[in-house]
TrEMBL record:
Pfam families cross-referenced by the UniProt entry: Queuosine_synth
Role played: Transfers and isomerizes the ribose moiety from AdoMet to the 7-aminomethyl group of 7-deazaguanine (preQ1-tRNA) to give epoxyqueuosine (oQ-tRNA).
Enzyme class, first EC level, given as a word: transferase
Transmembrane segments: none
GO cellular component, one term: cytoplasm
Alphabetical list of InterPro entries matching this protein: QueA (IPR003699), QueA_dom1 (IPR042118), QueA_dom2 (IPR042119), QueA_sf (IPR036100)
Keyword entries, A-Z: Cytoplasm, Isomerase, Queuosine biosynthesis, S-adenosyl-L-methionine, Transferase
Protein name: S-adenosylmethionine:tRNA ribosyltransferase-isomerase
Length: 349
């Protein structure tokens, strides 16, 4: 597959700038792989497509407020810092992106907060934009994280053309978020309300969780036409024995496994074993999925409508079939579905 095959014309007005009023009342396109049929529903109708004994696998990562605004020592130049991941808790080392990168050198100090209460020193240049910062803070680790995150803002995708608002702290987070570490929200999960999860539980649909700490690599532009030459950024993930036992039990009983989001799709694919089963996994994954790809565990996928050229679109077409998904995208545009993290949903069966 070539990068140019994932180009399509997306009208700017279809990119959702705000979350829908109620999580489970976004629109949902249902795509049937076997027949090619496409249906138009409301998200909370998803329960009608699954039965007692099926399982939904969610990503329980928790987004932290990753964008900081600070000033460079001496010059006072304004610097935007995006926290990516904590490298070392004891030494308070963080992997970050900085803008404008050209103004920052090793040894520079950056000051954050109205009273410059948080100070960081640049100790390494890892890429043209990336840096390693050491935060200079005397309190314990929990106090430091609390103080750091109080200064941060939600890091919304660049296609959302506005500053973060108060509602984003809640709405750019799944209701089951638990393990802190993501910069990017697992957007498919944003559609699930507590009421919907309860209805699924009553119906006998199992719920299980893995953890993939989604990073900005999901939005990094691919700069090669030949997709086999693209290298994904690594993301930390965790697949527990409890999840493995549940999923493997469901498969053995001929029920379906539904991945909620492309991060879960990749997480499951990174932990497959023989015979359509899963195994435990703890570590990092840089698995890049694009068509054609043989999925042996996942039977259904919940996802959003993604941007042209995006890694998430490539994963979606790998699961649903390139021709069918691109046809569905044409229909989504003509039917004015909303795209992006705050947009509408697609269920592929």
């Amino acid at each position: 597959m070539k990068l140019s095959q994932f180009r399509f014309k997306l009208p700017e007005e279809l990119i959702a700038q705000h979350a829908s009023e109620h999580r489970d009342e976004a629109r949902m396109m249902v795509v049937h792989r076997a027949s090619g049929e496409i249906e138009h529903r409301v998200f909370k109708d998803i329960i009608n497509y699954f039965v007692d004994g099926d399982i939904f696998v969610f990503n329980d990562t928790k987004v932290f407020p990753a964008r900081l605004y600070g000033n460079k020592e001496k010059t006072g130049a304004k610097i935007e810092v995006s926290l990516l991941r904590e490298l070392n808790a004891e030494n308070k080392l963080w992997d970050v992106l900085v803008e404008p990168a050209r103004k920052i050198r090793i040894g520079n100090k950056l000051y954050f907060g109205d009273d410059d209460s948080m100070v960081a020193e640049v100790i390494d240049n890892t890429t043209s934009r990336g840096r390693t910062l050491r935060f200079l803070y005397d309190g314990d680790h929990d106090e430091f994280k609390e103080a750091l995150f109080k200064l941060g803002q939600t890091l919304l995708p660049e296609y959302i053309k506005r500053e973060p608002e108060e509602e984003d702290a809640e709405r750019y987070q799944t209701i089951y978020a638990d393990k802190e570490g993501a910069v990017v929200a697992p957007a498919a999960g944003l559609h699930f309300s507590r009421e919907l999860l309860k209805r699924m539980e009553i119906k006998g649909i199992h719920q299980a969780f893995l953890t993939v700490h989604s990073g900005l690599g999901n939005f990094r532009e691919i700069d090669v036409e030949d997709l086999t030459k693209h290298r994904m950024d690594s993301e930390q993930m965790e697949v527990s024995q409890a999840l493995v036992d549940m999923v493997n039990g469901v498969k053995d009983n001929d029920h379906r496994v539904c991945a909620v989001g492309t991060s879960v799709l990749r997480g499951i694919a990174s932990a497959v074993s023989m015979g359509g089963h899963m195994k435990t996994y703890s570590g990092w994954t840089n698995k890049f999925i694009f068509p054609p790809y043989d999925f042996t565990v996942t039977d259904a996928l919940v996802t959003n409508f993604h941007m042209p050229y995006s890694i998430m679109l490539m994963m979606t077409t790998a699961f649903g079939g390139y021709d069918l998904v691109m046809k569905a995208y044409d229909e989504a545009i003509s039917e004015k579905y909303r795209f992006g993290a705050y947009g509408d949903a697609m269920l592929i069966l």
